[in-house]
Design a protein that fits this description.
Strand order of the largest sheet of chain A: 3-5-1-12-9-10-11-22
CATH topology of the largest domain in chain A: Aldehyde Oxidoreductase, domain 4
CATH architecture of the largest domain in chain A: 2-Layer Sandwich
Oligomer: homodimer
Helix content of chain A: 25-40%
Number of helices of chain A: 20
Radius of gyration of chain A: 27 Å
Strand content of chain A: 15-25%
Mean pLDDT of chain A: 96
Enzyme class (chains A, B): oxidoreductase
Largest interface: A-B, 67 and 67 residues
Keywords (chains A, B): Molybdenum, Oxidoreductase
Family (chains A, B): Belongs to the xanthine dehydrogenase family.
Number of strands of chain A: 29
GO molecular function, one term (chains A, B): xanthine dehydrogenase activity
Organism (chains A, B): Trabulsiella guamensis ATCC 49490
């Protein structure tokens, strides 16, 4: 019984939810309603740091339709973490629990001191405005440097430094010093927001058995369950989380955001359904952002471009609360360590609290910031040494058989050299590079390239576990339950393909149950770390393999054949020797299994599998752009990402992932920035009008390509692809601007304002 | 590993949903709402038989808020069955498909020709009244005799006889003839309705993938799925059925009632949610009723009371549509054949269509009618032969080792003699019987007894299959998914006990997921045939056994012990040799299994099991009553049911079941009757004011007792108990009246009106 006869992964098939989504029939959290649902609105801080010295909710409570006002005095004294990490048995490794549902000590602009519940949303909003708060201001800290300064006011009791960590592989300082050339530079990345289409929304009610059910737009239903239980001091399974379709998360919904509050409110209001839905403004100020990193990078390189060693010293700004805290800075160092594994690598990172909105997980999880620094510095070296930036990368890039210097894991599939070669050809790198030589005048053209590496899950930092259950229906359709979540990335489609391939049925005979329900859905931490397709695959494949075996065994009984003589392809049972002559269909087997009076039973299978491998994906971005020096404006002529993500499970969806990531990468590189007043900590542009997220009109044609690759440790040969497409975009753009103008800009985003500052400083323009 | 160390079944524990239900927090179908839900109301026939010759819905459609009007012309030409029987691979055995969603040929008062959908219920109702229909009447048939008469108009194309069947075990006619005494009589039972508290209600919407989801108050979610698919010509798994808490069904919701219509309407209205909810009047006229049986019974008996043989000849009135059709008359014969297995038994039954509301399944499924006849006739014999009715039953009752003469199955547990003996003592039968000798005057007292037998499922007529899945949560709580449905009878509680016992955890650590969802819930046909606790038990036990084993195996890994050395009791792992010294808890095992970085996985187990045994439950009713001859009124002084249902899984719930059944039995015996005009077929009392269902004030104290019994073929020693408590009530009451007055009344119910007729005929009263 070879369970992979029928190929399904590797083919492009339409998203299983494509029609549902374009027809508007797919149901998201806000499409669910409940009788008697009430609405909550926060009373938020207008200052970035201080105390609420007095609060008066009399007027708010008096408003008709208001059910209750809760303040910091009413919430449980149970600090809880919000980061969407699987639990760990090691108390040292657990996320920092620095949150209460409401706080008197406000730590960022928009921090919440009270919440109003009313019969309708407008009344809640109006009542929230009627809550009178007197504020007592504290000094505002907006940078890690200020946070660590002598005498800085403590934002949290334990001080302003969350954690520091260090990696040292192969004695980097000595290697850098011993190299012929040394380069170093200082890099700075901005605070940006995920800007998922669907906002942050959830509602909760108390079940008949005093348990609390929460419907939420989340990436991590099973983790929401645990964290809500922690926040309310309940037993974990007393919380039930349902996850409908999700309109994007990008890491923001890898935090537990408003679910604990929704649960708290219903628990205090006799179990009525209460919804906590944030406005876009609130999403900006009071959910999560991408960490701003300050990076001091240095490298040592030989004349021929051999990278001997590189070091990065990072200050990470996590804002007002820990959320994922230091793990983003720490993880970033691990994720990029596959890129140039033959070089020594040093990495130091410190994460600090400041009075900025809280930073959390965002696509790339620390890697984009570090890759921006590393790949920019490498181009500084290439420029100085007059080496082709592509050649320098080819020389140093990871190859099969290399060993990651940090974790000592062997790299079994390393398609990065192939990505660079394929990109060189597709992008016509050499021709374009020649065309761009010696640019002058106002319009200057440049090309750039940058690489990245990225793991396929969180192992060994986090436990990697996934579960899947498959059921054969009477009509031959197969239902799949998985704790891994569809959040817009196409997980359900790829999972359908995996199961179809392994069982041996057409893809359209497989139906993934997209809604997770933690009461019954197999356990899986959720969608993050680009982990899902890699970690869910062994569970899906094992469950599917078992079901295939059961189908064949039952068919054998029906056909009076040894199961060894039978195979299953394209939904039909056939003799292994005569696969072209189908005997009976899976549906016929199912009907007999269900309804034969004596033999058989319902055919189902379930598997829960832990993963202890974590192969890296690789890739690179090529950019060709024009800089209008006078207008300080960048126009991208062409942009191409080339990826090694192992076997590509669905080229159509993979292309979509890459395009999405590239667009987000361009946003981070050129357009987006939360403008936060350095003195007051106030957020100046918390809306989609003032926050300049690129639209389709602002983006060039996005091109993508993949290299042939197959990861041997992977259930279907694949590796991560969710986050990678974003990672190398910024450095490639920055490097192209360097080539075009000779100016290496080390602070993102490359907005006209930034370019103006840098070009003036470089003497390109006067002012 | 003895998985039954911790006893949980056999103990009284509170219903798991008790608090939810008394606090009103348990969610029933009507507690679920959806955005944009619309409502449907039928246009029903005011005549019992005829055609809609013309229909004009112009005015209805013009009413603001009306979305659509559908008539018989708009519905699929797909006849479908409605009976809640598991599918069979044998086409001969399938239920009769005689239904269309709407019909031009109306066959009973209230039959539906059209349906209106509107934005709100009132508008739908008003619009339905505005649909103008012209009617063409056909002759109305209300009795099987008229239905079979020469030249009778055909209610359905195939004629008015659904089916006839015959059982002959041991040459009954010869045995009766050879006996010393022969008795015979004619019995008649009424049409009654289930009158479940929660009405018939369901709603449906079209899912994002064109599938249809239905939320319904049903006993049989998995069967609803199949039948809706049949009615709409869809693939079975394209239908999804969700069953919330159910407020009673008693067999009425073992039919697929309004779910196909709700599904049809949403499919025709672009997927909007549409609700079809019936009023109490509609429940009476247009759902299901209990079959009226006309029974000619005879028996042959020896001087010592040895029953040599008995025969019954039954005409069953199924009304306008087949529904369960002939299977009720046929099944009844099988179910009672365990009672006196050493006697020859002859049984003939014919089921006819008439123009009465459709009869279907109702608690007892044919047995109450037959037991009424048999146990009445036996008392006629006892009276004539001056034998003690209790002795005559003791002499003939089934004993262990007897073989059912019809199906040749051995009876391994037969507690009926013990029931009779225990009842004799508890009821003080001999003393009371002596007190009642020679009654005269206006107030006359009598005692009566009657017995029954009843199977524990539908095997071998139907396939018996059940599935269960169990999941261990991080906090040690165990979730149970089962296709078997809680409909008020306490299934969830007893299932919790079974799982707790088998795993070895406290009952309150087990949580049954009460809501079924056919997309993911293990398959089980549902709640009917008193099958669930018997048929679900092996699946629950097997799944629980597997989970127990997995827990112990993981604990063994944690403790560096052989699993053979470990046991699990009261939620704690201990050494088998030192069970009193617990080592670690199930919750600790769970946490390690989930979160140890490498070993373990989520612990779950699933089993689907077919059952091919069907042991009978037994029992008897004792009644002491007073007859006011002049007022023709019966007052029950005392009533006691004694049951052999094998091991009693939860005495508290078992008592509740028995009380409910006895109350329903008293209703059927003394109070309830749907009054249907014999000429017009019109239902005269389709409401709870005119239909005299007894209230708590009308019922005596209900007493119950159980005998020690353990069925060896059963997973937990138990047998059926859901339907049995009702079955022998009517004959016991009738027999007590016979003793009190000398008048054997053979037509139910024993209302004052009936008693007046009979007493006058017997000369007890003048008139």
């Amino acid at each position: 019984m070879d369970e992979r006869e029928a190929t399904a992964t590797g083919e492009s098939c339409l998203r299983v939810d494509a029609i549902a989504k374009v027809t508007g029939r797919a149901r998201y959290t806000d499409d669910y309603v409940m009788a008697g649902m009430c609405y909550a609105k926060y009373v938020r801080s207008p200052i970035a740091h201080g105390y609420a010295s007095q609060i008066d909710s009399t007027e708010a409570r008096a408003l008709p339709g208001v059910l209750a006002v809760f303040t910091w005095e009413d919430v449980p004294e149970l600090p809880f973490p919000t980061a969407g990490h699987a639990w760990t048995l090691d108390p040292e490794k657990r996320d920092i629990a620095d949150r209460y549902l409401l706080t008197r000590h406000v730590r960022h602009h928009g921090d919440a001191v009270a919440i109003v519940v009313a019969r309708d949303e407008l009344t809640a909003e109006r009542a929230a405005h009627k809550v009178k708060v007197e504020w007592e201001a504290l000094p505002v800290i907006t940078t890690p440097e200020a946070a660590m300064a002598e005498g800085a006011v403590a934002i949290h009791e334990g001080g302003n430094v969350l954690k520091s960590s260090e990696i040292s592989a192969g004695d980097p300082q000595s290697m850098i010093a011993a190299a012929k050339y040394q380069f170093q530079n200082h890099f700075q990345t901005p605070v940006v927001q995920h800007c998922h289409m669907e906002g942050v929304t959830s509602f909760a009610w108390m079940e008949e058995d005093q348990r609390i059910t929460i419907v939420s737009s989340t990436q991590i239903p099973h983790l929401v369950r645990r964290i809500v239980a922690q926040a309310l001091g309940m037993s974990w399974s007393a919380i039930r989380v349902i996850k409908p379709y999700v309109g994007g998360g990008f890491g923001n919904k890898q935090d537990v955001l408003e679910e604990p509050m929704a649960a708290f409110l219903t628990s205090r209001l006799g179990g009525i359904p209460v919804k906590v839905s944030l406005s876009r403004e609130e999403c900006f100020m009071a959910t999560r952002t991408r960490h701003a990193f300050t990076i001091d990078a240095q490298l040592g390189i030989e004349r021929d471009g051999t990278l001997k060693g590189y070091c990065m010293d990072v200050l990470s700004n996590t804002g007002a609360y820990a959320s994922h805290g230091h793990s983003i800075a720490a993880a970033g160092g691990n994720k990029i360590s596959y890129l140039y594994p033959r070089s020594a690598f040093g990495y130091r990172a410190t994460t600090c609290y400041t009075n900025l909105p809280t930073a959390g997980a965002m696509r790339g999880y620390g890697a984009p910031q570090l890759i921006f620094a590393l790949e920019s510095l490498l181009d500084d070296a290439a420029t100085a040494l007059k080496l082709d930036p592509l050649d320098i990368r080819l020389r140093n890039a990871a190859q099969e058989g290399d060993i990651n210097p940090v974790n000592k894991k062997t790299i079994y599939s390393a398609g990065l050299p192939e990505c660079l070669r394929k990109g060189r050809e597709l992008f016509e790198w050499d021709k374009r590079r020649a065309e761009c030589a010696a640019q002058h005048g106002n319009l200057r053209r440049g090309v750039g390239v940058a690489c990245f590496s990225y793991g396929s899950n969180t192992w060994p930092v986090g436990v990697e576990i996934a579960g899947a259950r498959v059921l054969l229906n009477q009509d031959g359709f197969i239902h799949v339950q998985s704790g891994a979540t569809e959040i817009g990335q196409g997980a359900d489609t790829v999972f359908s393909q995996m199961v179809a391939e392994t069982i041996g049925v057409p893809v359209n005979q497989v139906r993934v149950i997209s809604v997770q329900d933690t009461d019954v859905t197999p356990f899986d931490p959720g969608a993050f770390g680009s982990r899902q397709s890699y970690v869910a695959a062994p569970a899906l494949r094992e469950a599917a393999r078992q079901l295939r075996e059961k189908i064949i065994l039952h068919a054998a009984e029906m056909l009076h054949q040894s199961a060894l003589n039978l195979t299953l392809r394209h939904g039909m049972i056939a003799m292994t020797e005569r696969p072209e002559m189908p005997l009976i269909s899976v549906a016929e087997v199912a009907m007999d299994a269900f309804y034969h009076p004596e033999r058989g039973a319902q055919l189902t299978a379930e598997a829960s599998v832990k993963t202890i491998t974590n192969p890296p994906a690789f890739g690179c971005t090529f950019v060709d752009l024009m800089v209008d020096v006078a207008l300080c404006k960048i126009t991208i002529n062409r942009i191409l990402n080339v990826h090694d993500s192992g076997r590509i499970l669905n080229p159509l969806l993979a292309e979509g992932q890459v395009h999405g990531g590239m667009g987000m990468g361009i946003g981070w590189s050129v357009f987006e920035e939360m403008i936060i007043d350095e003195t007051s900590g106030l957020v100046r542009n918390p809306n989609l009008l003032d926050y300049k997220m690129p639209t389709m009109m602002d983006l060039p044609t996005l091109e993508s390509a993949f290299v042939d690759s197959c990861e041997p440790q992977s259930a279907y040969g694949h590796k991560s692809l969710g986050e990678p497409p974003l990672i190398s975009v910024a450095a490639a753009i920055r490097n192209a601007v360097l080539m075009a103008t000779g100016v290496g800009i080390n602070t993102l985003p490359l907005t006209p304002k930034r370019l103006f500052t840098e070009f003036r400083q470089a003497g390109l323009i006067e002012g």
